Amino acid sequence: MPLKIALAQINFLVGNINANLDNIATAAIYARDQLHADMIVFPELAITGYPAEDLLFRPDFIEAANNAIYQLAERVADIAMVVGFPERDGDQLYNSAVVLQQGVILACYRKQALPNYGVFDEQRYFTAGTLPGVFEFNGHFIGLTICEDVWKSGIIDATKQAGAELLLTLNASPFNSGKSHQREAVVCQQASASQIPLLYVNQVGGQDELIFDGASFATDANGHIVFRAAEFKEQISVIEFTGNQPIPSICAPLYQEISSEYHALVLGIKDYVRKNGFHGALLGLSGGIDSALVLALAVDALGADKVEAVLMPSRYTLDMSNEDAVQEALALGVKYHCIPIEPAVNAFTGMLADVFAGTAKDTTEENIQARCRGVILMALSNKQGKLLLTTGNKSEMSVGYATLYGDMAGGFAPLKDVPKLLVYQLSRYRNTLSEVIPERVITRPPSAELAPDQIDADSLPPYDILDPILERYIEQDLSAEQIIAAGFAPKDVARAIQLVDRNEYKRRQSPPGIKISSRAFGRDRRYPITSGYRGI
Amino acid sequence: MPLKIALAQINFLVGNINANLDNIATAAIYARDQLHADMIVFPELAITGYPAEDLLFRPDFIEAANNAIYQLAERVADIAMVVGFPERDGDQLYNSAVVLQQGVILACYRKQALPNYGVFDEQRYFTAGTLPGVFEFNGHFIGLTICEDVWKSGIIDATKQAGAELLLTLNASPFNSGKSHQREAVVCQQASASQIPLLYVNQVGGQDELIFDGASFATDANGHIVFRAAEFKEQISVIEFTGNQPIPSICAPLYQEISSEYHALVLGIKDYVRKNGFHGALLGLSGGIDSALVLALAVDALGADKVEAVLMPSRYTLDMSNEDAVQEALALGVKYHCIPIEPAVNAFTGMLADVFAGTAKDTTEENIQARCRGVILMALSNKQGKLLLTTGNKSEMSVGYATLYGDMAGGFAPLKDVPKLLVYQLSRYRNTLSEVIPERVITRPPSAELAPDQIDADSLPPYDILDPILERYIEQDLSAEQIIAAGFAPKDVARAIQLVDRNEYKRRQSPPGIKISSRAFGRDRRYPITSGYRGI
User: Fold this and answer.
1) Catalytic residue set of B
2) Backbone phi, then psi, for B528, in 5-degree steps?
3) What is the pLDDT of residue B536?
4) CA distance linking residue B199 with residue B241, whole number of Å
5) B505 close contact with A: CB closer than 8 A
6) Where in chain B is the domain with CATH 3.40.50.620?
7) B487 Cβ partners below 8 Å, 6+ apart?
8) Rounded CA gap, A223 and A210, in Å?
9) Which whole-number Å values give the CA distances from B126 to A116, A149, A353, B496, in the listed order?
10) Residue A274: closest CA among chain B residues belongs to which residue?
11) φ and ψ at residue B468, rounded to 5 degrees
């Protein structure tokens, strides 16, 4: 009988051990009865969801997770299950993969390489294992590894030395743009170097800032991909083996970069809304490109009936902005309201007239407008139980071109890690699927419309200059000197860097957003607010 | 000639290497010329400030820090300097202590124990050293350790085995209530167990969420404290030795717990305002106890002329609240404005009348009031360049009894880690220094005054029940079962835990506040927002 191993690319809910346990058992029974699999492999820490963060410090949580493994072992027979869980052993906690068969634990492997960089804090929680994991199953010697293990040299080799003929890898590998290619390149190279076939199982779904993109795969001993699951979708598939060699089967194609980014954003919104129990989403629709894109993403994620748009014009809002906003709502079939902000702005102006007497107008007055919009949107969100989506992009977050408690008010920021130039690209991409964003919205100069005839370029370098500077400073950690040496004007570099340095306090209070770059704001980039560092 | 070693308990600015370098050089020259010291010991990572967080990933920053060490070596002669810095060696970064003398590096020690729990992320940045550090200086064999090293067993012993007769410890050890006693107990026990005298140098100052309390000390080989620097203040002192034994000198007393908490909060406000370049601070003064305490703290931190209070009554504000608020401002000599919020609330009510038609009043209407206050306070903050202090306490932050973008709007939250019962204690403590908080404010039942005759106890268990439940759930990670077993009513436990679980999203967007407990919200407690975990 040839070996058949199922891969469970599943979407878990962090913290809900009972639901995850049900999910795992259901998948195992499906794999056994429908796919006739001998074994099913689940992602890293499937039982708790990943990352469970400081929930892992709760003794009750860890106890429940460990008990769940015993319950699972008893609940499902006649298929072996490889499941990630936080293994408690005395005072130590391990990021482990357990193999369950017929009610007993056949093997348990403890992750050796614990990532503690970027978004990862695994050394905060776990002790590293020190031994390779190999077990015998129906005459096959199968090795176990977990995520980071296969990115480090040495661990695959050691596992093979310990007798493994075939390797399983349990993963919770988060998405960023280009990651699926990078992941396959690294893992296939390692498999090939060690001449061992490998099954790579990744989870799928959105979890706060992170998207897990799935794209689980199998490679033969030469590092050739012989199977790939879809990206951004749940999928349970079975791989058949001749001896220890996986037989080629369906390889789902990888998306083009822009398409993968769009799908990541859609999944991020969908899961944040669904997993947090919101009744839908709403957003302020300004006629600008950012809110137009967020509206399209939200509708693609939730359906038009679950999304609501609010136009909040002021005296500075151009007619074309209102027209375009209405056209966007109509094109996507979304309910919209129009609530002009003038009465509230006037009220505040009057209330502050005495204390502001004799002072000049400045950004204070612009911020009041943005904050009036924030109050209206939050009132709608509170009343309806709908998630308020903010529409700011990464370029704005970087330089603080946004109003705290104004346009930054909201529960989730889909574009937080999307630079402005990519906002344009994603909008054009979305329009290739169906025309939902008016051409004029894409081509007009961007403006916050908080003062007469205002455009972003009054305050900031043009985005085709600003964005590459920001990427170099924020994602690549280059110095001003290096960025200038790369051909950017010193005054643009200085302006951009000063603004980034100065606006950490705003970012710290921004809602979570979806990581799609190599370094997102949030857990991925931890800067002090109080800081004397000056990049320029 | 007996050995004289100075301790530099100094306040650094994270990220400003040039300023820190100047600070270090000035202190060294002072110790040499005024105190006739042979050597001066600075805190952990003094050259960058602690914690520099992801600034440590910037190659330009690390290069500047390493260059600064060479500059310092050349700049100050005739005194040995022991300085903490991030040592680059190839691809690795170490948390190191370098000994500089007459322009050369006499020794360099790499921290072995890298804390990666609580607020610490040192394994994100540093590679652990593996060797004890001992150097000879004027015939003395001196050991080097850094902070966590002396909390772990084994490292002091190994350093003594390597020849050390006297131990220096460079620290950046953050405050929490009771920490100074705990720190001395642990370190003195270790010194005594290894029978080695020890000089413990801690930094002082506020850095975002953290307070470093100083309280540097020296212990003899029997673990008896023979010198202690003041808490919460800069101090450069010299310890004289007979052989390797420190000669007893002035021991500053340790504050009582309540007093240390008050001082920590004052220092936190002072340094956040000063280091971030604000012109002062302002806050909304409601007549409630939280804002009364924050006002007193702010005045004690900054002086009355740098603090401004704003009364923003609504139709639900009782006369006594306004009276008490005015009395507080007068007692502390603080300028205040009164800006009733009714016009803005009415404007929003009118603007939302259509969309809200047919819906019942709920917390939405309460939140609108709080958000109108947020807009006013932020407008004043923007216009004047003053830091807006929020006044919410830890109990409210825990259960989400606060309005996002409303009373949570602001740059800094002094009471974020102060539970309500401690707010009362701190207020009474402050009144023992001078009567600034009216007795009625302390004794009346707390109310948000967002609806008629509202008191907190309508929505929450009384604070003398709520606070101990919260401490057990949040700080001690106890389960609902365990808390109930400790004698709390199941319904109170359920209510408290449900609210804590549900309100992570609010905490994530709250301003930073000052850690004074064993576990504060912020970097210290990292919970997922999207979470299926239910503590009850």
Assistant:
1) 44, 111, 147
2) -70, 145
3) 87
4) 11
5) yes
6) 260-450
7) none
8) 28
9) 11, 20, 54, 39
10) B530
11) -65, -30
| pLDDT reported for residue B379 | 98
Chain B nearest C-alpha distance from A10 (Å): 16
| Amino acid code (one letter) for B139 | G
Structure tokens at B237: 């002192």
Token digits of residue A469: 């500077």
Tell me how far apart the alpha carbons of residues B408 and B389 are, in angstroms, rounded to a whole number: 9
CATH code for the domain defined by A260-450: 3.40.50.620
Return left, alpha or beta for A427; rule: phi > 0 is left, psi -120 to 50 is alpha, else beta: alpha
Range(s) for CATH 3.60.110.10 in chain B? 3-255
Candidate from B14, B380, B525 with C-beta closest to A355: B380
User: Looking at chain A from residue 462 to 491, which residues have their Cβ under 8 Å from any Cβ of chain B?
Assistant: 477, 479, 481
Beta-carbon separation of B479 and A117 below 8 A: no
Q: How far apart are CA A415 and CA A515, in angstroms?
A: 9
What is the helix (H) or strand (E) element at residue B200, kind and residue range? strand B198-202
Please name which of B249, B243, B251, B188 lies closest in space to residue B220, comparing C-alpha atoms.
Answer: B188
Do A232 and A242 form a contact (C-beta atoms < 8 A)?
A: no
The mean pLDDT of A317-344, rounded to a whole number, is 97
CB A512 within 8 A of CB A412: yes
DSSP character for A214?
B
A11-69 pLDDT tens trace: 999 999 999 999 999 999 999 999 999 999 999 999 999 999 999 999 999 999 999 99
- Angle, CA of A371, A375 and A381, to the nearest 5°: 135
Provide the phi-psi class of B400: left if phi over 0, else alpha when psi is between -120 and 50, else beta.
left
Identify the CATH number of the domain defined by range B3-255: 3.60.110.10
User: And the tokens for A42?
Assistant: 């689940």
**Mean pLDDT for all residues in chain A:** 97
Query: Taking the CB of residue A277, how many other CB atoms lie within 10 A of it?
Result: 10
CA B232 to each of CA A254, A448, B56, B208, B488: distance values in angstroms, whole numbers, following the listed order: 57, 45, 26, 15, 37
End-to-end alpha carbon distance in chain A: 67
Which among A23, A119, A531, A536 is the top mutation candidate for probing chain B, defined by the most B β-carbons within 10 Å of its own β-carbon?
A531
Q: Is there a catalytic annotation at residue A136?
A: no
Distance, in Å, from the CA atom of B166 to the CA atom of B492, rounded to the nearest integer, reads 54
A111 assigned to active site: yes
Pick the catalytic residue from A4, A87, A108, A111.
Answer: A111
Q: Does residue B1 surpass a pLDDT of 80?
A: no
Q: Of A147, A153, A83, which is closest to residue A111 (Cα–Cα)?
A: A147
Distance CA A367, CA A372 (A): 9
Q: Which of A31, A40, A90 is nearest to A66 (CA)?
A: A90
List the single residue in A with minimal CA-CA distance to B19: A532
